[in-house]
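I have been asked to look over a protein record a colleague put together. Thanks in advance; the entry in question is below.
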Amino acid sequence: MKIVVLGGGISTERHVSLVSGTSVCKALRERGHKAIFVDMFLGLENYHGSLEAAFDVPDGFCGNVAIEKTAPDLEAVKASRKFKSPSRLGKNVLDICALADCVFLGLHGADGEDGKIQAALELMGVPYTGSGPLSSGMAMDKAVAKMVMESCGVLTPKGRELSYSREDIPELAESLPVPCAVKVVGGGSSIGVELPDTREQLKIALENILQFGNRVLVEEKIIGRELTVPVLDDRYLSPIEIVPPEGMSFDYVAKYQSGDEGAREICPAPISQDEKELLGQAALRLHRALGLSVYSRTDFILDKEGRAWCLEVNTLPGMTPNSLIPKAAAIDGMSYGELCEKIVSLSMAEKNKR
């Protein structure tokens, strides 16, 4: 198959997406597919051959990339683009996608998980991996996803949505409950998430978050074990426990750095069968309620009373070989390459169904 793997983009999760996308592309090429990696924002501005011939380039446009300790400098990325345009799609992106048998979405965050690129590909009649535009948009918006959780009986922390400006911060810092969790509604990879315990920390948190957006979800802070549950082909895989470094939360650095700075990911999670069933069924219920397709990953806090509190759902979770879904799939005996190929085949079947 001719497969375009879209990654990069211009979201705060750009670095993660570059690694996911190039990893998927290399795995699909090893399995015999004509896969190429295309940065959704930069496009093919450095390629000067015919678009048809692009599927035969020796390296599939896969460069060497890594996840940095800090979020990407998006203004620097914009300045580096040769194709000067207000479009968030790079040169020839839609043209090369139109020539593919399938587009593998290795994107994360804005423009990738919010349904926009899915809608564009849907209108073009191009098959793509994962969920459709509406389901993706609902899941990406944490406030909307929370309403769906509540309506389908998935336990989630109490919270409220609000929009604010810098002038509102002093009043909010005094009136909002603490401790709490403050999340920008369209964020990911723990960017735009703060966990203040005091009013002074809350004030700083609200100031920090404004750089990512002014619409946030403020939730009660639940204490417990952090677990995540992948769903693949309408069944849940092994839950994974995430243990951040001592004294740290599961932030951007803990998620993506190794060694002392990185979190430990225990798969399968050391939990009882009843707890596994509780988490798995909740993840499946939310996956179905949102109308998600093919795969997803849902994050929980398991408290000391054994209650599973749902935090959020990811429709395009990380897909590096060391990411959480590949680890859970490996427990089921599925290699990384097999997982990538299965996501493609399931998505093609879903497209034919639609």
